Design the sequence.
C-alpha cells in the first residue's frame, strides 16, 4: 500500500510538470496531440487490467506509432526542425506509460490481496449451501437407511497458533484479516487432502467435512494426516471434533451439533455456536 501511494504521488508530480511545461520552460512548445495522447494512455492502461500482464515494451510499441500517426493526421510537423520536440513528446509518453503501468500492477496486487482475504483463492470459490446441504442430508439418510458408517468432522483453527504482532488499535481488524487468510489456506489444503470425499462446508471460522463409509478406527490416521499437512502448508494447528452415525446422533443437525461441541472442547476459551444453514458456504469435490 505504501508503494502504491508513492507511485501515485510520483505520477501526480509528473503530470503537473508535463501539463505546465510550457510555463516552466517557454522554449518547449508541446503539441495538442501530445497532451491529448497522454490523457488517453492513462485512461486506457487503468481501465483495461489485462494490459498490466503484458511486457512494458508492448504498450510502448503500440502507443508511439499511434502517436506519430495522430500527429501526421492533424498535419503537425514530425521531422526536420520539429524532430527534437517529437522525441521529447515520445519520451514523455513512454515515462507516463511506465508510471501508470506500475500503478496498475500495484492496484492488481492490492485487488488480489483483498480477494484472497475476503473470498479465498479464485479457484476455490464457494457455492450456495443449499446444494451442499442437500448432498449432506442425502448421505446421512443413505447411511442411516442402509446402516452404513458415516463420520462428520468439524475443523477449526487453534487461535494461539496464529501469532500476529499488532498495535493495540488495529489488533482486532488485523487479526480478523489474518484469520481469514489462514482459513483460506486451510480450505485449499483440505480440498487437496480430501479428494476422495464429496463435500467440505465452511461456516464462519470452521469447516464441516462429511466422510461417508469411514469408521472411527480409520480416523486417527486421517486426523494426523490433515493436521500435518495444514501445519506444513499453512503453519497453524487444527482443532477437530468428530460425530459418528449412529453412535453419537442419527440426524444431520445432531451430527453437526455434536461435532462442533467436540471441536470447541479442544479450545474452550473460544466458544462457538453451531452453524446456521443460511450462513454456510460450500465447496464441492467430485470423485
Sequence:
Amino acid at each position: 500500500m505504501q508503494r502504491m501511494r508513492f507511485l501515485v504521488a510520483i505520477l501526480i508530480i509528473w503530470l503537473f510538470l508535463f501539463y505546465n511545461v510550457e510555463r516552466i520552460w517557454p522554449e518547449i512548445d508541446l503539441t495538442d496531440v501530445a497532451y491529448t495522447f497522454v490523457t488517453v494512455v492513462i485512461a486506457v492502461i487503468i481501465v483495461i487490467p489485462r494490459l498490466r500482464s503484458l511486457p512494458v515494451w508492448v504498450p510502448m510499441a503500440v502507443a508511439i506509432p499511434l502517436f506519430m500517426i495522430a500527429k501526421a493526421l492533424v498535419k503537425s510537423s514530425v521531422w526536420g526542425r520539429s524532430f527534437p520536440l517529437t522525441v521529447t513528446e515520445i519520451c514523455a509518453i513512454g515515462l507516463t506509460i511506465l508510471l501508470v503501468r506500475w500503478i496498475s500492477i500495484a492496484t492488481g496486487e492490492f485487488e488480489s490481496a483483498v480477494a484472497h482475504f475476503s473470498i479465498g483463492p479464485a479457484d476455490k470459490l464457494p457455492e450456495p449451501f443449499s446444494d451442499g446441504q442437500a448432498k449432506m442430508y442425502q448421505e446421512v439418510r443413505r447411511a442411516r437407511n442402509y446402516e452404513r458408517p458415516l463420520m462428520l468432522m468439524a475443523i477449526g483453527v487453534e487461535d494461539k497458533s496464529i501469532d500476529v504482532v499488532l498495535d493495540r488499535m488495529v489488533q482486532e481488524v488485523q487479526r480478523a484479516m489474518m484469520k481469514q487468510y489462514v482459513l483460506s489456506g486451510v480450505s485449499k489444503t483440505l480440498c487437496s487432502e480430501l479428494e476422495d470425499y464429496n463435500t467440505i462446508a465452511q461456516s464462519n471460522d470452521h469447516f464441516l467435512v462429511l466422510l461417508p463409509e469411514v469408521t472411527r478406527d480409520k480416523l486417527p490416521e486421517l486426523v494426523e494426516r490433515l493436521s500435518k499437512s495444514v501445519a506444513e502448508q499453512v503453519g497453524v494447528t487444527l482443532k477437530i471434533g468428530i460425530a459418528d452415525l449412529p453412535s453419537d446422533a442419527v440426524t444431520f443437525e445432531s451430527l453437526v451439533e455434536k461435532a462442533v461441541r467436540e471441536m470447541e472442547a479442544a479450545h474452550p476459551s473460544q466458544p462457538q455456536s453451531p452453524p446456521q444453514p443460511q450462513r454456510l458456504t460450500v465447496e464441492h469435490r467430485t470423485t
Remarks:
- Confidence is low (pLDDT under 50) at residues 164-169, 268-287.
- The first strand starts at residue 127 and ends at 128.
